[in-house]
Amino acid sequence: MNDYEMMINAYKDAGGDDIFADSEVAHLVLERDKILGMHAVEGLEVEADKISEDTVKVKVLVKAGYQIKNPVHMCFGVLPKEGRQKIDMNVEVQKNAKVEVVADCVFPNAVKVEHIMDAVINIDDGGNYIYKEHHFHGDNGGVEVIAKSDINVEANGKLVTKFDLLEGRVGKIDFDYKANIAEHGTVEMLARISGQKNDLIKIREAAHLNGESARGILDSKIALKDQAEAEIYNELTADAAEAMGHVDCTEIIKDQAIARAIPIVDVRHPEAKVTHEAAIGSVDSTQLQTLMSRGLDEEEASDVIIQGLLND
Amino acid sequence: MSKLLEVKNLHLKIEDTEILKGIEFSLEKGEVFALIGPNGCGKSTLAYTLMGINKYHPQKGEMYFKGEKINDLKITERAKKGITLAWQEPARYQGVTVREFLALGLKSKGEEVTEEKLRDALNKVAINPYQYLNRFVDKSLSGGERKRIELASLILMHPELIILDEPDSGVDVVALNNIAEMINYFKESGSGILLITHSEEMLKYADQAALVCEGEIIRQGNPADISEYFKSFCYPCAKEEECETEVAS
Prior knowledge:
Chain A is mainly β.
């Protein structure tokens, strides 16, 4: 079996759809610094170049006015037990263009693996970019993910990011996302992560609603058990009229897990409004006992509640 | 033959407050037994104690289900034996759909989950399955809708003993009629129902009734008589004057 087949198999094992043979679906497949597959469609340019050992530079361009019909699939990963993958990603969504990217990051055998993503994302006037990232790290806890994004959303533009890591071990995650939003622009950053054993989750998200009527939502749902730890810093600032945003962080902890939520809300215009909610605690006892009164044992009931929270 | 539920001399104290003081009653299969009383008299506490909810463990007295003492059984064990509770304030679940919630009771009994069963249960509680099965059981549903969905989950479980804690609170007239229909449905299906309420209107659906005051059953018997007594002496509370709290007939 060649590298491409192994990568696609790992992707499918992690729940990915078999779309790589479909000529109407754009895709990019990277295993460490190896570019295993790449396909673009009309209106979309995808370029990938190895620029140094373990590092690939990726450029995605959606041309003005194009609405890409099918989600673009990206498959990144490291197949051996040890390795490093660094991706320098540059995304440009031009005026009134629209694209959805589904990225699956697979590290099924990782014992000592580093995955570093350094992204610059520019969304022009009226552009729309949806980025869904699904991670599968295997059961060893040997993955370290370091992701950094600088995001710029111009007037009437929209960015949605959805990150989930719900099966297997997390290992270490360290996110640092910063977004600037112009007038009537929107940003939504959602994260759903389930941590266990000695997993460590650190998320720093900052969205600055600089333009009039800009909108922002930062929403993190984290479930932790064993000795897992999470620190979530959500910062939302609003300094223009009618700018509105909401920060929501919910963390459920069990066993000896530790969770911290640090919401920062900064409003500098009398007609702007930002709200926040943060809740950290164990599984709600009324929810738990209602399910137990339906015949579920405590562990089963707890799983239903936590999975529900993470699927929300 | 053993009664479906038998409660003997039940006492419960939480911290230093004695909430249940020697509660005694019994309930047969296919019977509706109503417990009525003003807010704060211990009715919901009794419901939680019977279900085995954490922190509601009686210090004295016995609870028997079909002749078996259940004092030491956990919630799940009681549920698996056929006891369940419909809460006064049904819980909300982020990210759990009505479909998933309804399926839980079936799965725990090892029964097959089919669309037909789920739709049928929702139709019985006057909820349109096509509009609701994929909705989340969260704050987007009203309290009345959640109550009806909870009743639908009980239909699927067909438990032998159903504790309905204030099923009429916070619901509109339409939902109230539906709840009355459900009480009859459960009764005709052979389930025993412990109906907990503070509204004498609900007593017309009961076969037996008891009046609870400050953690004690002070009167027990025909629902019409209990209703009359409740209306005459409990609204407003007339304990200082005519009330016969010492006499349980």
